[in-house]
Design brief:
alpha+beta; 4-stranded antiparallel sheet; 45 strands; elongated; disordered N terminus
C-alpha cells in the first residue's frame, strides 16, 4: 500500500473519530437541555477525555441542579473548577461550535459563582470558623469572600475573647494576620500578656515584664507602676531613691520635678539655694535660675477694663490684665480664673496647673485645696493630687492633719493624703494644741491626733478652758469640768470669757469676777456688769477695767484697784487711758496721773502710740504730749495696724501714719487688708494698693 493511501486512511479515521466525539458532546448538551440527566451524565462522562472543559461544565450543571438525583454541590464545584482550568486548552473551532449551547468562559465563571453562592448558603446553615475557612480555601473567587473572611475572623475572635488569654489571641493573630480584628486582637494580646506576667503587682514583677517583653506597649505602664510603687509615700527621699535606682525609667523627669516641688513646700529663696546645693545634678538648672529670678520679684494684682493681671510695686504691668479674677502670689504661684475655671500660674504667666477647677485656695506649705464638680481635693505645687477631689467639705491643714467629709461623716487625713482618723463624726474642727473638737453621735468631745478621745462625747456643747478643763455650755448657765467629766464646784456661771494672763472674766448672777485656769474664783464676782464688759472687761496684760456703783476703775490680777473706781466713764486699759470728767475727756496713765487734761468732747484710749480725740463733731489723734498728730478734721478715725490709722471725711477714706503723715489721700470708697503688707483701696472701678513696709501708694501706670 502506498504511503499516500495510508495517509488518506489515517486522516479519514481522525475525522470520523472527531465527528463521533463532537457528536457525543453535542448529544450530551441536547440531553441536558431536555432534562434527560441520566443520558446527559453518561454522555458528558464519555466526553471527558475529548472535551474536558465542556464535559466538566455539563457535569457541574447536573451536580448543581436540584431537580435530579445527582445533586451534589462539592462534585459540582470540582467539575466547574476543572472546566475553568481546561477551557484554555480547547481549540477555537470547538469553542465556537459549542456557543450554541451557551457554553463559554463567562458561562463557566457564572456557574462557578452560583455554585459558590450555594456552598456559602450551606455554610450559613451551620456556621463555624472551620466551615468558613474551608469555603475560603476552595472558593477564593467568590463574591462572598469578604463576608466569609469577616464571619470566620469574627468567630475566631470571639473564641479568643472567651478564652481571654494572651496565647489565644497570639494564635488568632498568627492564623489571620490580615484580619479586620487584628488591631483589637493585638491590643488584647498585649494587655493580657501584661496582666498575666505582672500578677504579683510588685516592683519585681513589673521589672521582669519590662525586661522580658521590651516591645510590649504596656512597658510604659509597667514603668509607671514602678514609679508609683517606689514613691507611694510621696517623700523627697522616695523620689531621690527612684531617680538613682531606675535612671532609664520614663518617669525620671517627673520624679525630679516632684522632688523639687516637695522640697520647696516651705517656699523661700533660701530654700531654693539649699536645694541647688543638695542636688547639684538636678537637670533643669535653667529653670532653677528662672525660679530664683521670679522669686525675687514682687508683683501684685491690678484691674483694668474689668480684667485682672499683675504689676510690680511701681505700678508697671508685668502680666497683662487677662483674667476674670486673680490672687496674690503665694509660694511662687497664684490662682487665676479664666472662662469660669481656676488654675495656677507662675510669675512668668506660665500655666503650672491647668484651668479646670471650680474654685481653689492659695498654696500653703506646698498644698492647695481645689474644688472640682462640687467636691474638694488637695494638690501639690506640681498639680498632682495629694487627695483626689471627693469630699463635700474640707478644712485647712493644722498640726499636720485636715478634716474632710466624703459622704455624711467627717474624718481626718495627713499631709500625704493618708487617712489617719476614720470618717465617723457629724462635725469636725481643726487641731489646736494636739486636740480637735468633734461631734460624735450628736454629742461633742475632743480627740487627739490618733483619734482617741481626750474628752469623751458626753455633752451637747462644750469648749476648752485652758489646757485641762472644759466649759459645759447650757442654755442659761455653764459649768466647768475636767477632761474626765468631773464637774468642778465653783460659782454659778452665766457666761465665761477667754483666759488672758491666767484670768477669765466670769459673769455670775449679773456680776463680774475672774477665774484662774483651774476654775478657781481668784477675784470674787462683786463688780457690776456694764456695756461691752465681755470685751473691755477682759484682762489686758496684768490689768482689767471694772465697774461698781456706776463708777469705773482698773484692777490688777489680784483684784486690787490700780486706778480707783471713781470715774463715771473710762476707756479701755492702755498706756494712756481715756477718762471723762465734767462732760470732757482727757487721758490718765496707769498711776492715775492726769497726762492730758479733760478738754475734748470725746476720746479713746491710746493705741498704736496715739489717742483718738473729738472736738465738736470732728475727730483726730494726739500723741502723749497732747500734740495733734492727725488733724482734728475727720468724720471717723480708727486704728488700722501698729503704725497706721484709717480716717474718713464723709464717704471717703485715707490713711495716716502714727507720725502724722498722710500716706493715702482721702479719695477711696473702701480700704481693706488683703495681705500682711498690703491694703487694697477702692476708687470707683479702680483698685490701688498701700504697701505698709514702705508707706507706699501703688497705682497701675497708664499704658
Amino acid at each position: 500500500m502506498s504511503s499516500l493511501r495510508i495517509k488518506i486512511l489515517v486522516l479519514s479515521f481522525v475525522c470520523v473519530f472527531t465527528n463521533v466525539q463532537a457528536g457525543s458532546i453535542d448529544d450530551a448538551f441536547k440531553a441536558l437541555n431536555q432534562f434527560n440527566y441520566f443520558e446527559a451524565k453518561r454522555l458528558f462522562e464519555k466526553s471527558l477525555k475529548s472535551s474536558q472543559s465542556a464535559a466538566n461544565y455539563g457535569l457541574a450543571m447536573i451536580y448543581y441542579r436540584k431537580d435530579n438525583p445527582f445533586h451534589q454541590l462539592d462534585s459540582a464545584l470540582n467539575c466547574v473548577v476543572r472546566s475553568e482550568k481546561s477551557y484554555g486548552l480547547m481549540k477555537d473551532k470547538q469553542k465556537e461550535s459549542l456557543k450554541k449551547y451557551n457554553f463559554d468562559y463567562l458561562a463557566i465563571a457564572s456557574l462557578r459563582q452560583e455554585i459558590s453562592t450555594a456552598l456559602f448558603q450551606r455554610v450559613l446553615q451551620n456556621p463555624s470558623e472551620e466551615a468558613y475557612d474551608g469555603f475560603l480555601k476552595t472558593n477564593d473567587w467568590a463574591k462572598e469572600t469578604f463576608k466569609a473572611v469577616y464571619a470566620r475572623d469574627s468567630i475566631g475572635y470571639v473564641k479568643a475573647k472567651t478564652s481571654n488569654t494572651s496565647a489565644a489571641f497570639d494564635l488568632f493573630l498568627k492564623k489571620y494576620p490580615q484580619s479586620d480584628f487584628q488591631k483589637e486582637a493585638l491590643n488584647n494580646f498585649y494587655r493580657l500578656q501584661y496582666t498575666e506576667n505582672t500578677e504579683g503587682k510588685n516592683i519585681a514583677a513589673f521589672l521582669n515584664f519590662e525586661k522580658q517583653f521590651p516591645t510590649n506597649p504596656y512597658v510604659a505602664d509597667a514603668q509607671d507602676q514602678i514609679y508609683h510603687l517606689s514613691t507611694t509615700q510621696n517623700r523627697v527621699q522616695d523620689y531621690q531613691s527612684f531617680i538613682r535606682t531606675y535612671p532609664k525609667n520614663r518617669n525620671v523627669e517627673s520624679a525630679w520635678r516632684k522632688l523639687y516641688q516637695l522640697y520647696m513646700a516651705d517656699y523661700s529663696l533660701e530654700r531654693l539655694d539649699k536645694f541647688q546645693k543638695e542636688y547639684p545634678d538636678y537637670p533643669y538648672l535653667s529653670e532653677l535660675k528662672k525660679d530664683k529670678e521670679l522669686g525675687m520679684q514682687q508683683i501684685i494684682p491690678f484691674k483694668k477694663n474689668g480684667l485682672f493681671g499683675w504689676m510690680d510695686l511701681n505700678g508697671k504691668t508685668v502680666i497683662p490684665a487677662q483674667y476674670s479674677t486673680v490672687g496674690f502670689f503665694k509660694e511662687g504661684l497664684a490662682w487665676a480664673e479664666k472662662s469660669g475655671k481656676y488654675g495656677f500660674v507662675n510669675k512668668a504667666n506660665e500655666i503650672i496647673i491647668p484651668f479646670k477647677y471650680t474654685s481653689c485656695n492659695d498654696f500653703d506649705k506646698g498644698r492647695a485645696i481645689v474644688e472640682l464638680d462640687s467636691v474638694f481635693g488637695i494638690i501639690d505645687r506640681s498639680g498632682a493630687y495629694i487627695v483626689e477631689p471627693q469630699y463635700k467639705d474640707i478644712g485647712q491643714f493644722s498640726e499636720g492633719l485636715i478634716y474632710a467629709m466624703k459622704d455624711s461623716l467627717y474624718g481626718y487625713f495627713d499631709g500625704l493624703g493618708y487617712p489617719r482618723i476614720p470618717e465617723q463624726y457629724e462635725e469636725a474642727f481643726s487641731f489646736s494644741n494636739g486636740m480637735a473638737k468633734v461631734t460624735f453621735k450628736g454629742l461633742e468631745g475632743y480627740i487627739d491626733v490618733y483619734g482617741s478621745f481626750k474628752v469623751k462625747p458626753l455633752y451637747e456643747s462644750i469648749n476648752l478652758f485652758g489646757d485641762s478643763l472644759i466649759i459645759i455650755e447650757g442654755d442659761e448657765s455653764s459649768k466647768l469640768a475636767t477632761f474626765q467629766g468631773n464637774e468642778l464646784k465653783t460659782i454659778a456661771i452665766e457666761d465665761l470669757g477667754m483666759l488672758v494672763s491666767d484670768r477669765a472674766l466670769v459673769i455670775s448672777d449679773d456680776r463680774i469676777g475672774y477665774l484662774n485656769k483651774k476654775g478657781q474664783a481668784v477675784i470674787p464676782a462683786t463688780f457690776d456688769y456694764f456695756t461691752n464688759a465681755k470685751t473691755e472687761g477682759e484682762f489686758v496684760g496684768a490689768y482689767a477695767k471694772v465697774s461698781k456703783a456706776n463708777k469705773f476703775g482698773v484692777i490688777d490680777k489680784n483684784g486690787k484697784p490700780v486706778i480707783p473706781l471713781t470715774y463715771s466713764k473710762l476707756g479701755a486699759v492702755s498706756s494712756l487711758i481715756a477718762f471723762e470728767k465734767a462732760g470732757k475727756w482727757g487721758f490718765i496713765d496707769m498711776q492715775n496721773k492726769v497726762i492730758i487734761p479733760a478738754s475734748y468732747e470725746y476720746a479713746e484710749s491710746f493705741k498704736s502710740g496715739l489717742g483718738v480725740v473729738q472736738m465738736l463733731t470732728l475727730k483726730g489723734a494726739i500723741n502723749a504730749k497732747g500734740e495733734i498728730v492727725i488733724p482734728i478734721e475727720h468724720t471717723t478715725i480708727k486704728v488700722l495696724d501698729d503704725s497706721h490709722f484709717i480716717v474718713s471725711l464723709g464717704a471717703f477714706y485715707g490713711i495716716y501714719t502714727n507720725k502724722g503723715k498722710l500716706v493715702v489721700p482721702l479719695e477711696y470708697s473702701n480700704i481693706r487688708k488683703v495681705q500682711d503688707d498690703f491694703y487694697i483701696l477702692s476708687k470707683g472701678t479702680e483698685l490701688h494698693y498701700f504697701y505698709v513696709p514702705e508707706n507706699k501708694l501703688i497705682k497701675p501706670l497708664k499704658d
